[in-house]
Every structure is written in C-alpha cells, then in structure tokens.
Amino acid sequence: MAGNRRIRVVVGGVFDILHVGHIHFLKMAKELGDELIVIVAHDETVKKRKGRPPINPAEDRAEVLRAIRYVDDVVIGEPGEISLELIKKLKPDVIALGPDQDFDCRTLKEKLRSIGLKVEVIRLPYLYKEDRAKTSKIIKRITEIFCD
User: Fold this and answer.
1) Which of 7, 58, 75, 117 is a Cys-bridge partner for 33, taking CB atoms 3.0 to 4.6 Å apart?
2) Residue 1 has pLDDT above 60, yes or no
3) What is the pTM of this model?
4) In the chain, what are the domain boundaries?
C-alpha cells in the first residue's frame, strides 16, 4: 500500500455454485490489493451468456460471497455486458479477470481509459486443474448422479 492509500481490486463473475476454483480466484485477487469488491452477474446476464438461468438468484450468490473472508463488498451487476458506469463508480485500481473469462485485457483497459479511468487489468492464472473447479462440470456430475 502506497502511503495511506488503499488499493481497490474489482472482480466480476457468476459465482453460481461456489467451488474451490472460485475461492482460489478470490484469494489471488485479494492479494493484489487491500480491498476486494466482487461484481456478481445479474440473472439476465447469466441467462444471456450461459444460455440458461442461474441455479441461484443474484441476491443469494451475493450473500454467499459476502461471507467469504477475502471479499470486502459485493454488488450485483446490471443486465448486459460489463457496465463501465458501475466500474467508474467503484473506482478500482485493479481489475482481475479469471482465467476462463472471455474478456481481452487490452481492450478492457482501452475502454476504461476512454472514460477517464487508469486501471490495471490483470488476468489471473488457472491454478486448479480438476473438473471439480468448473461449475458446468459440477452440474453435469449432479445430473449424472441424481438423474440417471
């Protein structure tokens, strides 16, 4: 931390069925600064991006995330793609992207600069190689075990 200035890190995601990959991601993101704010994807955004509604509504996903020690605050995103206005309001120093998020770091950084924000955009590595750390794989295993 430079002087008394706190470094604010922002991440975003669905976080529908929380798993160990999410925890590793949040821990790594928190290590990039002093304060971690999570933007939880709006239910409509999940439906549009994943082709299915979320298992858990955004309010529940946010509540679960608030209980994680690495997370300082949680906000629910707006419907649609990344809201530059929301990011501007949150005033991050760093935006950490997950390894499976399909955003280009450079493009996002340029969009942020176009609205007057100088934000470092970092892609975090995928540390957990098992299928247990993918929500889609967890859903598949649940249906195989309980629906066959």
Assistant:
1) 7
2) no
3) 0.88
4) 8-147
